[in-house]
What we know:
The complex is a heterotrimer of chains A (284), B (257) and C (286). Chain A has helices spanning 72-80, 107-116, 125-128, 135-145, 151-164, 181-192, 211-228, 239-245, 263-268, 273-283; strands spanning 9-20, 46-57, 61-65, 87-95, 98-101, 118-121, 199-203, 231-236, 248-253, 256-262. With 284 residues, chain A is an alpha/beta fold. Chain A has a domain at 130-196. Chain A is globular, with a radius of gyration of 19 Å. Chain B has one domain (3-110, 180-251): Rossmann fold. Chain B is 37% helix and 27% strand. Chain B has a 6-stranded mixed β-sheet, sandwiched between helices. Chain B has a 4-stranded antiparallel β-sheet with strand order 2-1-4-5. In chain B, helix 7 (194-209) links the parallel strand 7 (182-186) and strand 8. In chain B, helix 4 (119-129) crosses helix 5 and helix 4 (119-129) runs parallel beside helix 6 (164-176). Chain B is globular and about 50 Å long. The two termini of chain B are 33 Å apart. Chain C folds into 2 domains: 2-138 and 180-232, Rossmann fold (3-Layer(aba) Sandwich); 244-286, no CATH class. Chain C has 8 helices and 12 strands. Chain C has helices spanning 2-12, 22-37, 58-67, 85-98, 146-154, 159-172, 201-204, 275-285, and strands spanning 43-44, 73-77, 101-102, 111-114, 128-132, 182-185, 189-192, 210-215, 220-224, 230-232, 260-263, 269-272. Chain C has a 7-stranded mixed β-sheet. In chain C, helix 1 runs parallel beside helix 4. The A-C interface holds A 107-108, 111, 130, 133-134, 136-138, 140-142, 144-145, 149-154, 173 and C 151, 154-155, 157, 159-160, 162-163, 166-167, 169-171, 235-238.
Amino acid sequence: MKLVTAPEWVLKVENLGKVFGNLSKHGIENTGPEAGTSKDSVTGAIVAAWDVSFEVAAGEALGVVGESGSGKSTVMRCIAGDQAATAGSVKIRTAPDEQLDIFNLSAAERRQLRVNKIAVVYQDPAEGLEMNVTAGGNIASPLTAAGWRNFSAIRGRASELLSRTEVPLNRMDDAVKSFSGGMRQRVQLAKAIANRPPIVLFDEPTTGLDASVAAGVLDLIRGLLEEYGLAAVVVSHDFSVIEMLTTRCIVMNHGRVVESALTDQLLEDPHHPYSQKLVSAARA
Amino acid sequence: MTQQSIEQHNVVLEVRDLYKHFYLHTIDSRCVEALNGVSLSVAAGEHVALAGTSGAGKSSLLKSIYRTYKPTSGSVLLKLDTTTFVDLVSLTDAELATLRGTKIGYVSQFLRAQPRRSPFDIVMHAGIQRGMDRQTAKDAAAHSLQRLNLDEVLWDVSASMLSGGEKQRVNLAAGTISPPQLLLLDEPVSALDPANRESALELIGTLTSQGVAVLAVFHDIEAMRRLASRIIVLRNGRVDYQGSPEDALTNLEGVAR
Amino acid sequence: MTDLLNELGAEHDQKQFGILDEYSKREIRRAILTAVAVPGYQVPFGSREMPVARGWGSGGLQLTLAVISPSDVIKVIDQGDDQGVNAVNLRRLIVQSTKVHETTTASEASIVQSRHRIPEDGLDEQHILILQVPVPEPLRGVERDMRELARMHAEADYSKMWVSLYEDKVRNGVITQTTGYPCLVNDRYVIATTPIPRWDIPRLDQSPFLTLFGAGREKRIYAVPPYTPVTPLTFEDVPFEVEYTPGANCSQCGSSKSFLVEIPGPASRWVCSDTDWCERNSGKAQ
């Protein structure tokens, strides 16, 4: 009998792989942290991610740490469906006794998941928002996709979400392109949680924002994670973001997971040489 | 200690032959030996203070138990209910995370980054996390902050605005509200002025009567003398001596001289 | 010009009917059959060069010439007017090259080609209404990527359309889109109801006649078959409204129940858009 059980996963990634180009016979063995490259020297294929596995439960945030090019964003994009994975599986639990292997779904079903199951908050708001559309209209998008057809109900829900993410309501009917960077991220957050998805993926959510603005956005994300009990994946190269939002994390290097640890343990007692280098660089 | 004696003494924490070695790959793969086979136990209602010179492994031991450090070998048995123990070293990260804050508390010198949450919120949420209902947690949080003399005007400001001593008291309040069965204290009063230190020590003193097993590191001997029911002296990552505060402190002073 | 058309008609009398060759007719008819079978779906077709410029009704003309037979009676209107320059020219082209009968009365026609209106009355099960469509893609305003457009139709993912209606309502207080108002056909495909005004949209819903939409420049054909539901996209709490100017009456026949257009000028006045209906209505009034 198991004495301690972690809460059941909502998102489960197993042996996820993404290769750009054609691999040679020994392409996998000849890439990765030991080889010091993610490029197959024979064919030039890039092994952006390989053999990546992790689980995330409701109310839990998992960090994915690594330098740019380590494959962390690739992993996120494969889960989100922005990119097609080469190998592995991604399962989500939609009900206590119901799970979906999302790579088995059609493209249309995958997109439907993005409406109310898996939301993504991108580093660049232009990727997650229509810049010429108003803040309210951007939120109306997932709502109408989920079948909302009542104008005042949509308005009501949009203003509720915008106040939750601390966007002044007098800006609700302004085009998002007129917003500051921090405000755009807040609109993106409001849009992400519009249909109360159980899973939210954050790709460098505060990178590029001023420190004080970033702190406010981080606070907000932290509050949303708690309030909605989200299963979250936070991709970031910034340890202060990881420390503030996540309880566990994985470290990626040349497309592979080199370490997985409790977040405080990673920061105080990193094991893998690459993690130690990353942490000491961040602490310097 | 045998299984039977564990039960007899109502042991909550049992550390067996714990090693923690750091391999510093960035510095010519040097190995730093922080713990070299520590064995000890803490019973319910017992306050065990760790003593020893700096570098003896006191903080490393607390962190290895909490798994902020991942032990190299050995086991850390934590009591879950009257008859079952779980080895924290062998749990997965996700499993361990569920015990933190609920079964094991850790109060350090520093408040972890929570910029815009108020002290009151932080303390109240700690109570809720350990199973209090909202109203009880509210009352308990107020009581606890009062007891630690945190000025009421600071209760609802952002915790990032607090001074070091104020943060430390918030930390202590959060750690001791509806306390978990095992509480690890890492210099919990180091930044406090004498008056606040007094009320903090008093609060820590009440934990044992609530049946909490406390394992603590203090930087001053006076606090240990006052609170500890037993003192364990560490040296070079091993248990050097353990005994009553009187004997241990005499012993320790002897070493210091 | 007239002689040339007569010649063309005479010359082809033996081999083909009208100015479209039989292969072209067959291709267009196939596209029409697909369009009827999948209501609202935009079927690509190999739009031919017509002796009219693209954008001047070449799509509607090809549909008409592909379905027309010697026993048909044709009515052609520009806006609502049988005497509009473009209507006159297209009618002359059709009639002279096919020798079919022409009429201005909708009920007497079997094929009505129009670049704006559905005639106020007279269309029934035996009619085919052919509309000249400038922009067949209802989502053109909200998405430019052709593959993405195809995907959105394929998955019936119309949330961008809804967002654009939301934006219209927020920015203007009302939904301002007039011609080309997006409608859901047979609960599946959203179509642009261009060129018809909002006024005519309720008349498309469950209509007894077949409506064919032809876009020559964009090379698309789509259809609303008889008795097919056509629902304008609108929020539950924002009722769909047709154009209406309070107090306006037709200055010719006095009607306030037909689609009126304003004739600008120092003393602007309103007249029926459907001139034939207006004349008959005036007659009744007298």
